[in-house]
Amino acid sequence: MESRRKLTIKEGRHMIKAYLNPQFTADPPEGHGLRDALWVYREGKLVQFPSLLEALNIENSTAPVLSFTGAGGKTTLITRMAGEYLRRGTRVVVTTTTHMMAWDYPWFLLEPSAEKMERILADEGMVWLGLPAGDGKMQAPPRGFLQQVLKKGYPLLIEADGAKRFPVKAPASHEPVLLPETTHVINVCGLDSLGKPMEEVCFRPEIAAGLLHKQKTDPVTQEDIVDLALDSRAGKKHVMPQMSYHLVLNKADGAKEEAQALEICRLAEKRGFAQITVTAGGRQIQR
To answer: Which of 107, 77, 112, 111 is nearest to 91 (CA)?
Structure first.
């Protein structure tokens, strides 16, 4: 199974610039480029929210530790949230417990230096921490250094899983890698997986098929997404009772996908779970 096309350096820089732009808005005027929207499931409906921080109910949390797991789109969410913190004047730290892209920007720090971290935070308002991993990526910084970072009390955004950009993910035995200090787990799943064969859209389809008691050639359904999201061997794997768990459904880029997201929310609510955020982005939404 081949992985999805990697984000090019140019595309990655464009994404970061878009989300970190002080003028970025979730709903800019028509014809002004990137349009992103997000909704929260409330009382049977999707209610639009202006920011991820508000959608996830962490806008007033002083030092949350958020671990992003699941399918493709984690870096996009992290970048968007980092931009929201910047626009609020709150310093924020981004890192990984696995691997993530490392772009040539002044806010990336690829060595465990507390002094340099504070200097970058003072200059840039954020810092992205890791160690060089080759192929334009960075890997987790040393655990001891992460402990120093945690003691500083900054919001910490962690890419804690890998999916090679596939819209559905089932974890291997060593995944995800959650710090015990994690306060919130944000599990990501892509709506563009629906109706397509699992083996084409899922990272580790053999594991997902086993959990769902299906064949790898079976199409992904709304019920499958709910089952994976709520399974302690999949979306909720390693999530401890003290951690707040959220599901993010991304790529609701049209009316059809929005309706599919709403159906997933309602199915999950019937099983006692309703902490779901739906996002759209990257192109104009057609109504």
So the answer is: 107
pLDDT band at 75 (very low <50, low <70, confident <90, very high): very high
Give the Cα separation of 148 and 233 in Å (integer).
31
Q: What are 205's two structure tokens?
A: 């389809």
Mean pLDDT (whole number) for 123-144:
95
Residue tagged 């340099």 (tokens) = 116
Here the tokens at position 97 are 């417990």
Report whether pLDDT(272) > 70.
yes
Question: Hunting for tokens 């003290």 — which residue is that?
Answer: 242
How far from 29 is each of 211, 250, 281, CA to CA, in Å?
A: 44, 22, 14
Would you say the pTM of this structure is higher than 0.70?
Answer: yes
Q: Which residues contact 218 (CB under 8 A, 6 or more apart)?
A: 197, 198, 209
Residue 37 pLDDT class (50, 70, 90 cuts): confident
Closest to 19 (Cα-Cα) out of 39, 41, 38, 3? 38
Give, in order, the Cα–Cα distances in Å from 20 to each of 24, 206, 209, 279: 7, 37, 38, 17
Instruction: Tell me how far apart the alpha carbons of residues 84 and 150 are, in angstroms, rounded to a whole number.
Output: 20
State in Å, rounded, how far the first CA of the chain is from the last one: 35
- Mean pLDDT of the region 76-84: 91
